Each structure stands twice: as C-alpha cells, then as structure tokens.
C-alpha cells in the first residue's frame, strides 16, 4: 500500500463497549524492515476478507483522505493486484502487487511496487493471528536497503497507522458485526446496495459523539448549508426519536431518526425518514421511489485526538425499485454528506 512508497497497513462487540484500538507497534527486526501491528476488533476471517475481497478493500485501503480504485485483485499465489490510490490533492499512485504466497486466512506474502520503470518495490508480509480482542494484523515491509527504509520510515508508519484505523472503522460497520435485531427490515444479500462513507474529524471521539447526538450541537451544523435546523424533540435512547425541521424553501420539511442503538462514545444505529409535520414517515418530496426508511450504522474510532467517523446506510423494508433508486443516489449522497461534514468540522473548531 503506498503514498507512494509506504505500506500502510474497531468494531464494538454486540453487547459491550468498544475498546480503543490497540496502538500500532512500529518495531523492525532489522534495518531494512518497517513493521506495523495492531489488534483489530473483528474475527480473523472477516479481517482477512477485508484485505482480499475487492468489495471491501476500496472502502478503507490507504491513509486518511485517500480513495482507491481496484482494477484486479485475487488472493492466490502468482496473481497480480492492480490498484490506483487517489490522494487528497488529486495525485494518482499506481499499485502493482504480486501475490507470492498465501496461507488462507492467516498470511499473505506480497511484492509491492508501482510498476514504474526503475522501481524495485519491496516485500510485504501480512499475518493475521487470533487475539483476545479480535485479530492481530502485522504488516512487515522489507526494503532493498536500510537507507531506503530509513528514508520513508516516518511517513510509512504514519500512513500505516491511519490505514489500520480506517480498517477498524470499516469492519465495524459491516452487517455481521451488528446484532440481528438491529438489522430488522434489511434484505439479506443486498450488501452491494449499502452506502459506505469514512471521514476523519479533527476532534476527540467523545466530543464528536456529542456533536452527533446533542441538540445544542446538532442545531449548529447538521443538514445542508443554509437550511437551518430546528430540533423538535430529541430522545437519545434505543426506540427514542430525534425529530427535526429544516427550511429548504418557503415551507419547512421534516425528518426523524428512530434510534436502535446508542452506545457512547463509539456506536449509533438509527432509522432515517422524511416525515410529515406530525412525525409520520412520508416519501422523499423529490423522489417517489426513494426508500421510506434507511438504516444507518455508525462507528467512531479514536485516532489520537482525531476521530474516524464511519457510516454504512442501507434501505429497510424496501422493494427492488427502492433499492435501485438508493444505489443510483450514492454519488449524490457523497456530495451531500461531504458538505454536511464540512459544517461539522467548522463547528468543532469553534472555541468552546
């Protein structure tokens, strides 16, 4: 994994608090090595799948602010993984990764490079071990020379720790990490419909959780710019309801969250709906086949004094036409959420 030379590289248990991610250890066995290790709070098979399945890897691969396009990925000896990492400044970083050895669920031995002439690349061994809190993932880079390892050690470790935090946040949103009763109404086998967004927020996790849930915070940032939020009621508990009004034009529009899980400071689950003035769900005013209800699964993962906010949204009690409309809306949702999160960032940076 690269930026462009560095290989970077928490989900709560269903009925208990989510431990803070075990810090990465950057300890090398020799001067050519860079080693990053962390316990990820998820079963080994699931963590391994997040590394080796093209449906998962693009959502978390790379440091904060990066996105990834997967062109080719098969976890078998002799295969080649071809990825392009897109930096926050628009720079593209090609990744050509040759899979040399695989112990299914336990170990990957890779040769990582850019595919550019003159790039010798480096070896990467990734191991997955069961540990009490989940899975210990260890990434061991071996560079051609000690000088090369020394040159990139600091950015490689920083990038790796950010990527491990993104991995933890992402696997925390996966459906299988949540109790079945919280997924009521979700159609099995429709994971491809899910909308996934990871965003790093420059504030501590406890403060971010409060900003997501408390009226005094929500009125200062939530919703599209310029609409103004009016909180009608806020019952922050399972089966409780947040009801709000916005003013996109001459008339107010209404919405609600019905909470299914409230677990400070690391998890929220709630069902989002447009509503009438009395709080009853109604259709999207501009899209008749938009799902009547959308379930959001949210995790907050601490990264020092910053927080990774990870959200997975999915239609519930929906038919195929509604799911198709939701899938088609993913790009628009990226833009909408991104604008709203800019307001969250600004709110959290204001003096308190």
Give the radius of gyration. 21 Å
Count of helical stretches: 6
- Percentage of residues in DSSP E strands: 25-35%
CATH architecture of the largest domain: 2-Layer Sandwich
The tally of domains stands at 2
What's the overall geometry?
elongated
Give the low-confidence spans: 1-21
Helix content: 10-25%
Described by strand count, sense and barrel closure, the largest sheet is: 8 strands, antiparallel
Task: Briefly note the CATH topology name of the largest domain.
Answer: Alpha-D-Glucose-1,6-Bisphosphate, Chain A, domain 4
Mean pLDDT: 91
Notes on the structure:
Helix 3 (205-213) crosses helix 4. Helix content is 23%, strand content 35%. 35% of the residues are buried. It has two domains: 33-177, Alpha-D-Glucose-1,6-Bisphosphate, Chain A, domain 4 (2-Layer Sandwich); 185-349, Alpha-D-Glucose-1,6-Bisphosphate, Chain A, domain 4. The chain contains six helices and 15 strands. Strand 9 (229-234) and strand 10 form a beta hairpin. The protein has 352 residues and is α+β, with helices and mostly antiparallel strands. The radius of gyration is 21 Å and the shape is elongated.
Keywords, separated by commas or semicolons:
alpha+beta; Alpha-D-Glucose-1,6-Bisphosphate, Chain A, domain 4; eight-stranded antiparallel beta sheet; seven-stranded antiparallel beta sheet; disordered N terminus
In short:
The protein is of the alpha+beta class and 352 residues long.
List the helices and strands and how they pair.
Layout: E1 33-40, H1 44-52, E2 67-72, E3 80-86, E4 92-103, E5 107-113, E6 122-131, E7 134-142, H2 146-173, E8 195-201, H3 205-213, H4 215-221, E9 229-234, E10 241-246, E11 253-263, E12 267-275, E13 281-282, E14 293-303, E15 306-316, H5 320-328, H6 330-349
Antiparallel strand pairs: 1-7, 2-3, 3-4, 4-5, 5-6, 6-7, 8-15, 9-10, 10-11, 11-12, 12-13, 12-14, 14-15
Helix pairs in contact: 3-4
């Amino acid at each position: 994994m690269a930026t462009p030379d560095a290989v970077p590289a928490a989900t709560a248990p269903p009925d208990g608090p989510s431990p803070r991610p075990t810090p990465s250890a950057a300890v090398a066995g020799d001067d050519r090595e860079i080693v990053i290790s962390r316990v990820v709070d998820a079963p080994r098979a699931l963590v391994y799948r997040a590394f080796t399945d093209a449906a998962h890897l693009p959502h978390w691969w790379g440091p904060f602010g990066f996105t990834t396009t997967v062109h080719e990925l098969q976890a078998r000896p002799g295969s080649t993984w071809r990825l392009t990492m897109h930096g926050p400044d628009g720079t593209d970083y090609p990744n050509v990764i040759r899979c040399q050895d695989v112990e299914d669920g336990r170990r990957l031995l890779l040769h990582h490079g850019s595919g550019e002439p003159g790039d010798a690349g480096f070896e990467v061994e990734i191991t997955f071990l069961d540990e009490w809190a989940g899975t210990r993932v260890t990434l061991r880079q071996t560079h051609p020379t000690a000088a090369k390892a020394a040159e990139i050690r600091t950015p490689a470790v920083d990038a790796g720790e950010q990527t491990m935090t993104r991995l933890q946040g992402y696997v925390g949103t996966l459906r299988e990490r949540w109790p079945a009763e919280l997924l009521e109404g979700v159609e099995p086998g429709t994971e491809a419909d899910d909308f996934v967004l990871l965003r790093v927020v420059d504030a501590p996790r406890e403060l971010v959780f409060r900003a997501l849930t408390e009226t005094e915070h929500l009125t200062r940032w939530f919703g599209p710019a310029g609409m103004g939020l009016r909180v009608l009621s806020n019952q922050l508990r399972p089966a409780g309801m947040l009801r709000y009004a916005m003013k996109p034009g001459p008339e107010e529009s209404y919405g609600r969250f019905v909470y299914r899980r409230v677990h400070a400071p690391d998890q929220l689950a709630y069902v989002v709906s447009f509503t009438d003035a009395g709080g009853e769900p109604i259709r999207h005013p501009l899209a008749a086949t938009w799902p009547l209800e959308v379930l959001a699964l949210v995790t907050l993962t601490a990264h020092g004094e910053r927080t990774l906010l990870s959200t997975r949204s999915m239609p519930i009690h929906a038919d195929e036409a509604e799911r198709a409309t939701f899938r088609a809306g993913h790009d628009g949702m990226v833009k909408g959420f991104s604008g709203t999160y800019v307001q969250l960032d600004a709110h959290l940076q204001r003096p308190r």
